[in-house]
Amino acid sequence: MSTLSEKFLEVSEEKAFDTELRRKINFNMSRYEQAVEKGRKQYNNLEFARKKAHTIKWRVMENLDKYLLEFESNFTKKGGKVIWANTKDEANREILNILKKVKARHVVKSKSMVCEELELNEVLQHEGIESLETDLGEYIVQLLGQKPYHIVTPAMHLSKEDVARLFHEKFGTPPDATPTELTHKARELLREKYVTADVGITGANFLIADTGSIALTENEGNARLCTAFPKVHIAIVGIEKMIPSVNDLDLSMGTWPLLGSHGTGQNITVYNTIFSGPRQPGETDGPEEMYVILLDNGRTKLLAEKDQRQGLYCIRCGACLNACPVYKNIGGHTYDTTYSGPIGSIITPHLQGMQQFRHLSYASSLCGNCTEVCPVHIDIHKILLYNRRDAVKENLVSGSESFGWKLWKKGMLKRKMMNMFSGRTKNFFLRFLFKKSWSKKRELPTIQPKSFNELWKEKQHTDSNK
Fold it and tell me: Within the chain, which residue ranges are assigned CATH 3.40.50.10420?
């Protein structure tokens, strides 16, 4: 068992029985569920919209090389610059080269999971460059020195009282400040930063091939401010975010409303912006230079996996996290990865290595709820099984685990072996084998003295003698 796997089990047990954390998560999740149920009602045929989105992403992944080159060609025609980065180190190096070229000392960032993947804030801090998160949730966890808890709502694990105490300690606001007052304080602190920042850094929700554009969706307007005032805009985007056409955003059945309805329960998010390069002649705002860094960082490795490449269809709505009973119990930080929950469990072993992260594919009840709620119809629970299969093929499982499953399989295929031991003996072995894992916090089930097979034979015998 890897060190990461052992740590995951240890932290999972701690978080699963943290009643205060569970209370906060359940409260925030319940509000999300109510909103999403209402948001999905905008569709006359939600299933059709999901299948349409799935087909779009399938077409992209089957022709990704073509669409990436089309995007690059159309974006550069408008004065933008495209940089290809194979790894996170390459991406960080290219970002630092740009920042050093323009002598940047202050950077404002909008919410971006790809930036978290690059650990960009830590890289910039090491270089003496101030990097400020401007999304309110991201800003809060940055003040706490934490990573985002959730891919859509970074501060989901905090209550309004927690945030009020944080702002009181950092900025002297009243310890019982309301959410409105806290938001006003954050706005006051951030406004000056937008105007004085040298560079604005964003991610992108979608890359649009036919127009050579990036699409950003948000609820606070901070991404627009990050791109409107600084002279340089850098967008870091995973290559899987591609869609063929601007028409695929479609405000009735496209990816924008699917992202809004499944991510936050809105018909569509408040601010939806398309950027097609630096400021053009006659335009009043926008950057003088715009760069798009296309990040691979293991994505082409996942693309090569026929059974698992569906993981690249993800539009980062977070619906699978909110539906997952495991995530609800252990929370986002327990995964210790950029992408947590079911989607993180299927893509992380390919992005960061099956050896270290195979345990995430076992962190599931396989209930299938993640697949059921996914707006682009990714078969998440099946991919979890494919990952487990590959871990076995690559001999990454322990000898005891392999032996245990072989014994179980043999028993399942031969009824005589199942009936060889009495219920009492089976109960002994059950408690002996799982004493430390299952029965530590819960009561193990009791196996009946006779199996169903034995009871059925007795019934048949009794009926024939009547």
Answer: 43-297
The token pair at 286 is 């926008």
Counted residue by residue, the chain has a size of: 466
Beta-carbon count within 10 A of 77 CB? 11
CA 377 to chain centre: 15
pLDDT digits (tens, 9 = 90+) for 280-324: 988 888 899 999 999 999 999 999 999 999 999 999 999 999 999
Rounded to an integer, what distance in angstroms lies between the CA atom of residue 211 and that of residue 274?
Answer: 10
pLDDT of 211 > 80? The answer is yes
How far is it, in rounded angstroms, from Cα 387 to Cα 342?
Answer: 12
Give 142's contacts (C-beta < 8 A, 6+ positions apart).
121, 132, 133
Tokens of residue 357, six digits: 């992260």
pTM above threshold 0.85: yes
The C-alpha atoms of residue 163 and residue 28 are separated, in whole angstroms, by: 14
The secondary structure element, H or E, covering residue 213 is strand 213-218
The kind and range of the H/E element at 81 are strand 81-85
Give dist(CA 73, CA 118) in Å, integer. 26
Phi/psi at 112 (nearest 5 deg)? -155, 120
**Pairing, β 242-243 against β 206-208:** parallel
> What distance in Å separates the CA atoms of residue 158 and residue 116, rounded to the nearest whole number?
19
Task: Give dist(CA 246, CA 248) in Å, integer.
Answer: 5
Q: Are 88 and 195 in contact (CB under 8 A)?
A: no
Which CATH number is correct for 43-297, 3.40.710.10, 3.40.50.10420, 1.10.10.60, 3.20.20.450? 3.40.50.10420
The answer to whether 100 and 147 have CB atoms below 8 angstroms apart is no
Q: Cα–Cα distance between 226 and 202 in angstroms, integer? A: 8
Of 98, 176, 169, 106, whose CA–CA distance to 140 is shortest? 169
The angle subtended at Cα 153 by Cα 201 and Cα 319, nearest 5°, is: 110
